[in-house]
């Protein structure tokens, strides 16, 4: 049973890494589920304090993932319309069959939101750039945390391999 749980946890770890780039999957939260599944094995338990702290971190990053692109838009002079456009663009980009829609969507959404708000093109372009930077920042943060969780997974499994088999 432990081997099955380790394989299932590995699947969640890989999905967490993928989820760092795809907004459909909450990367760090998915990776945390992998850590929790690993904890359920008899061979590789984690400390409950560790699991709670890593869960709080994963939830915090999941929340920030929705806030950071909007903050980038606002930081670069965007208005409320640009922030709303960023969010709508992210959803449209996610559903779009166009490759790179997830990246282009928030940028174009912020640009269109600012232009609809009667901003001049240069100001709207600057706000859209801020949205893009916010998206890249949140993706980077998610990926780093998912890699750290994956590293913890690998260390625990390698150190306890003899107990599994």
Any overview of this molecule?
The protein is mostly helical. It has one domain (2-164). The chain has 7 helices and no strands. The radius of gyration is 19 Å and the shape is elongated. The model has no long low-confidence stretch (mean pLDDT 86). It comes from Geojedonia litorea. InterPro entries: DUF456. It holds the Pfam family DUF456. Keywords: Membrane, Transmembrane, Transmembrane helix. The chain crosses the membrane at residues 50-68, 88-112, 132-155.
Elements, N to C (H/E): HHHHHHH
Helix content: over 70%
Radius of gyration: 19 Å
pLDDT under 50 segments (min length 5)?
Answer: none
InterPro entries: DUF456 (IPR007403)
Transmembrane segments: 50-68, 88-112, 132-155
Organism: Geojedonia litorea
Keywords: Membrane, Transmembrane, Transmembrane helix
Distinctive features:
single chain, 165 residues, mainly alpha, 7 helices
Secondary structure elements and pairings:
Blueprint: H1 2-19, H2 27-39, H3 48-75, H4 80-95, H5 101-116, H6 121-159, H7 161-164
């Amino acid at each position: 049973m432990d081997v099955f749980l380790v394989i299932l946890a590995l699947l969640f770890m890989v999905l967490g890494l993928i989820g760092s780039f795809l907004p459909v999957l909450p990367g760090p939260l998915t990776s945390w589920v992998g850590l929790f599944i690993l904890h359920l094995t008899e061979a590789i338990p984690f400390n409950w304090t560790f699991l709670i702290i890593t869960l709080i971190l994963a939830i915090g990053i999941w929340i920030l993932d929705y806030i950071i692109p909007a903050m980038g838009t606002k930081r670069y002079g965007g208005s409320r319309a640009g922030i709303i456009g960023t969010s709508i663009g992210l959803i449209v980009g996610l559903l779009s069959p166009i490759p790179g829609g997830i990246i282009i969507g928030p940028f174009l959404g912020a640009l269109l939101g600012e232009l609809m708000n009667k901003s001049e093109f240069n100001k709207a372009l600057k706000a859209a750039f801020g949205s893009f930077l916010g998206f890249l920042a949140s993706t980077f943060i998610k990926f780093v945390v998912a890699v750290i969780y994956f590293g913890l997974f690998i260390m625990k499994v390698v150190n306890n391999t003899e107990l599994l088999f």
